[in-house]
């Protein structure tokens, strides 16, 4: 089996027979995507500076949103709570039973959010959420009454200006949502209003970002958790910051030492100072529904990786270096080259790249492909995937440096399909972390933290009580 390359200097996909013009085009693209150790460290340093700016003042690019979740879960918390998770590919409703001893049981149901709900009046979207809560309660026979309302933690994974654990207004939509009538509004109020109008006896007591939820849920199970991360449709991170470092938090008094900060790192470097943008990134950005926003997210997350790769492939087609110069109707469609395909292609270790062939010829309907074509496609996926993992590591290493990591090491909880399914994403991150942090990186565990948004929201609902 051919190992999956972990760095740009590892053996990337080789080519059996290709022309000089192929070779030089591929070398040129490879250079554009490469991020060496020095560059990685520079990006990480800038990231750390941006974090500190965000802790000092409101309205910074890296928003460093205070979550108002203070304290670190002990694992001993108990109780039954509801959680509603909006902001991923699916809407998820959960009943979470915190059993103590770091144990939980969860019952959950997923619901679709249609494009018309994502982009129609926000009121309809929130009414739909309330309907899903109602449906969930009846389907699972969960009793809640007007006198004794169940508490719900609302995981809302969009940038929010949070002013209390149960209050926060949407700053802007991301990840394909545009629903008018929500920006600037308190999303807890909107959800509670919809629940009340529909007479669903549930009280929304906590608002958390999925990243905050992931951190809390992971910390419930592993006491040395430092950071919660999302690598899915979008990307973001949350960590425990000393309250005394959160300079912008003026009128907040608490006995606690730490507060969870939702970094909102997707927006890092919207100013374009350090991220190595290629023309393929520029094209993606210009055609996205949020140009010049979420700069880092567009390099890293599942929503965008396939599209970057598609842009590279189209460029090679137009230069008659790929597929004999012909595209297909499918490949010409924005977002049709899915990030999931990249996972399959990177993992394809058949001699003739049969799995890659199937994707290209059956899923994307290209009439025929040569082995060289498929090798080029694989190389392009490697470049885009490697760059994403290394940039994730740049962000992680900045946060790790911001915290005092104990001698014994620490744990990072990561949720999201990209981390779960993309081949060697974790190993690539680890390699890049070692380049940034040296041997200390060996003491950092990267763990999958599934379902964090549900359990985490329940913990927040509990901590808010
Ligand atoms: P969300 O972040 O929306 O809560 P997920 O964590 O499941 O949900 O992430 C969904 C994203 O993960 C999609 O944008 C998709 O591109 C990406 N994805 C799904 N399956 C795979 C896969 N097998 N390999 C790589 N990326 C994937
Ligand atoms: Mg998610």
From TrEMBL:
One example of a Gene Ontology biological process annotation: glucose metabolic process
Catalytic reaction annotation: D-glucose + ATP = D-glucose 6-phosphate + ADP + H(+); a D-hexose + ATP = a D-hexose 6-phosphate + ADP + H(+)
Domain annotation Hexokinase N-terminal: ranges: 26-220
An example Gene Ontology molecular-function term: ATP binding
Keywords: ATP-binding, Glycolysis, Kinase, Nucleotide-binding, Transferase
GO CC aspect terms: cytosol; mitochondrion
Highest taxon of source: Eukaryota
PROSITE patterns: HEXOKINASE_2
Pathway: Carbohydrate degradation; glycolysis; D-glyceraldehyde 3-phosphate and glycerone phosphate from D-glucose: step 1/4; Carbohydrate metabolism; hexose metabolism
Keyword Transferase in record: yes
Domain (Hexokinase C-terminal): residue spans on this chain: 227-462
Sections of the chain in a coiled coil: none
Record-linked SUPFAM superfamilies: Actin-like ATPase domain
EC numbers on record: 2.7.1.-
CDD domains per the UniProt record, alphabetical: ASKHA_NBD_HK_fungi (cd24018)
Protein family: Belongs to the hexokinase family.
Name assigned to this protein: Phosphotransferase
Organism phylogeny: Eukaryota, Fungi, Fungi incertae sedis, Mucoromycota, Glomeromycotina
């Amino acid at each position: 089996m051919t190992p999956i390359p972990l760095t740009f200097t590892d053996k990337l996909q080789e080519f059996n027979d290709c022309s000089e013009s192929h070779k030089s085009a591929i070398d040129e693209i490879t250079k554009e995507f490469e991020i060496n150790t020095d560059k990685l460290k520079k990006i990480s340093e800038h990231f750390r500076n941006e974090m500190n700016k965000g802790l000092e003042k409101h309205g910074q690019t890296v928003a460093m949103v205070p979550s108002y979740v203070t304290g670190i879960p002990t694992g001993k918390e108990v109780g039954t709570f509801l959680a509603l998770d909006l902001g991923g590919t699916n809407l998820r409703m959960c009943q979470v039973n915190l059993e103590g001893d770091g144990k939980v049981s969860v019952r959950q149901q997923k619901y679709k959010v249609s494009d018309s709900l994502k982009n129609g009046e926000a009121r309809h979207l929130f009414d739909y959420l309330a309907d899903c809560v109602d449906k969930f309660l009846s389907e699972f026979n969960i009793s809640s009454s007007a006198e004794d309302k169940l508490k719900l933690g609302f995981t809302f994974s969009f940038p929010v200006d949070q002013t209390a654990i149960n209050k926060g207004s949407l700053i802007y939509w991301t990840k394909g949502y545009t629903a008018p009538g929500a920006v600037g509004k308190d999303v807890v109020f909107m959800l509670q209003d919809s629940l009340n109008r529909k007479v669903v006896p549930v009280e929304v007591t906590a608002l958390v970002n999925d990243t905050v939820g992931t951190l809390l849920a992971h910390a419930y199970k592993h006491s040395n958790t430092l950071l919660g991360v999302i690598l899915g449709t979008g990307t973001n991170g949350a960590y425990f910051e000393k309250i005394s470092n959160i300079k912008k938090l003026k009128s907040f008094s608490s006995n606690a030492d730490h507060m969870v900060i939702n970094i909102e790192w997707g927006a890092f470097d919207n100013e374009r100072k350090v991220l190595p943008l290629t023309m393929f990134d520029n094209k993606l950005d210009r055609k996205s529904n949020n140009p010049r926003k979420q700069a880092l997210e567009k390099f890293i997350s599942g929503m965008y990786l396939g599209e970057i790769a598609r842009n590279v492939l189209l460029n090679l087609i137009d230069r008659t270096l790929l597929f004999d110069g012909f595209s297909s109707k499918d490949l010409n469609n924005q977002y049709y080259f899915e990030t999931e395909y990249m996972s399959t292609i990177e993992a394809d270790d058949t001699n003739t790249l049969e799995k890659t062939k199937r994707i290209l010829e059956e899923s994307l309907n290209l009439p025929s492909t040569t082995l060289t074509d498929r090798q080029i496609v694989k190389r392009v996926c490697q470049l885009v995937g490697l760059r994403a993992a290394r940039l994730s590591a740049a962000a992680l290493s900045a946060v790790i440096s911001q915290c005092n990591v104990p001698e014994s090491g620490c744990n990072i909880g990561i949720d999201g399909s990209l981390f779960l399914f993309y081949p060697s994403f974790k190993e690539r991150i680890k390699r890049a972390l070692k380049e940034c942090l040296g041997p200390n990186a060996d003491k950092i565990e990267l763990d999958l933290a599934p379902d964090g948004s549900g359990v985490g929201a329940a913990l927040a609902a509990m901590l808010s009580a």
